[in-house]
Amino acid sequence: MSLTVDDFDFPLPPELIAQHPALERTGSRLLHVCGQQPVDRKFADLPALLQAGDLLVFNDTRVIKARFFGLKDSGGRIEVMLERIVDAGHAICQIRASKAPKAGCLLRLADAFTVRMTGRTGTDDDLFALELVDRGDFWDLAERFGTLPLPPYIEHPAEGADEARYQTVYARQPGAVAAPTAGLHFDEAMLATLQRQGIDAAFVTLHVGAGTYRPVRVDKIADHRMHSERYDIPQATAAAIARTRAARGRVIAVGTTSLRALESAGNADGTVNAGAAETDIFITPGYRFQVVDRLITNFHLPKSTLLMLVSAFTGFDAIRRAYAHAVTERYRFFSYGDAMLLEKSDAV
User: Fold this and answer.
1) Domain-located, residue 297
2) Helix axis angle, 305-314 to 316-328, nearest 10°
3) Alpha helices in the chain (DSSP H)
4) Domain of residue 73, residue span
5) Exposure of 330 by Cβ count < 10 A (0-12 exposed, 13-18 middle, 19+ buried)?
6) N or C: which end of the chain has fewer CB within 10 A?
7) C-beta neighbour count of 172 within 10 angstroms
8) Considering the entire predicted model, what is its pTM?
9) Whole-angstrom Cα distance, residue 213 to residue 190?
10) How many folded domains does the chain comprise?
11) 92-135, pLDDT tens digit by residue?
């Protein structure tokens, strides 16, 4: 199947883009895509759709305060979005400015500390490398002087409520600049309910980069080069997946980030290799899934790589029907929106 980016477009009324989360984490709707006709449910129904022996795999990354405003040494205004903190003194970022800074340029961020831009990096030289000039470290400076990096389609600046609700309740490992949003629907009470039902939980870490919002700039999707992200799969998670497979349970990824980590480390027998690595896996229709049996995810942007991923998982036509149904039924879209429970298609 030779697919183009336009094959993954769909009409989306702007008012369906959620600007704020539901009042309660589990208060969103849930569209169960499980055949020819999707089924409208509530997210609170999720425990009834799972069974003892299933394994939910969550991404425990934590969003850092990665957005800064500042000035170039020439006086020009800039906005810096950290893509990744490499170590205490070095980071990779996106920069918005009327004119891109040149290598060696000093940047004063948040009127609090100075960094030097040392050069471009990334797949298309679309990222900038920074080194810290002042004393301190990027982790501490981000927490003290950065702001929460809400997605570009959320129109209000980050508020106090966002600092709580744009994190999962199980976020542990700092490093992401975008939340693994499927996990935002879970609260402590639901996690406890799932545990009582004999539904196991395991964790991976994949630090979501700002590249997740980068548009596909080619016509044929086969020509797209995916951004790279770092993930870590603990030995305990690899063992839990092996036990689940042996007992004929289902591995359910909570979010596309968990799925990408698991499939990147997957083996033909459905097990995964523990450890840390980089992944630039690009999942499109025709991909053969090795590890994940079901997927919990939010609704994704038109023409996005994540829409291509879910089309690969559940089927191109099934996703088109599901998204058309969601628009008609006025589901809420994107990071603060409603969720889907997707069944894996048998087609390859």
Assistant:
1) yes
2) 110
3) 46-49, 138-145, 160-165, 188-196, 235-246, 256-264, 305-314, 316-328
4) 67-145
5) exposed
6) N
7) 11
8) 0.94
9) 29
10) 2
11) 999 999 998 999 999 999 999 999 999 998 666 789 999 999 88
